[in-house]
Amino acid sequence: MKLNKIKQEVFSCLSKSSNKRGEILVENVLFIVLNIIFISILIFFLFKQGSGAILLEQTYSKQIALMIDSAKPVMEIKLNMEKAREIAEENKMDFGEAVSITGNVVNVKLSQKGGHEYSFFNDVKVEAFPEKNEQNEYTGIYIFTINKNEGGK
What we know:
alpha+beta; 3 helices
């Protein structure tokens, strides 16, 4: 009787330990797969951020907004955006539509997806258009004309 009881205990211990080993293996495999997925997404995000379009959109929108804030009415400012023109052409975007100003918000869009907006505080009317050469090609320079806001205070 005692022998049967000992055999049952040994058998149950062996079966429990084999199940634990199976669970540990499944848990480790699941952990590794989830880590690989997470690292893949992280790498994809870093490549997307470093590709240039997103970073340049943010940089140019902030730079233009700060430039408008420091400008006085009846000014014309030229900004070299050659890198933005190259990226817009790579992404098959019209450089003439890369910068738009609506109200007091600057929007720079260099790719089909995305774009970055940044607000300025100066109460002025701003027009933005790209400069073209004699062959009607974009030179990479954007011209901003700052005038008094007629509808303002």
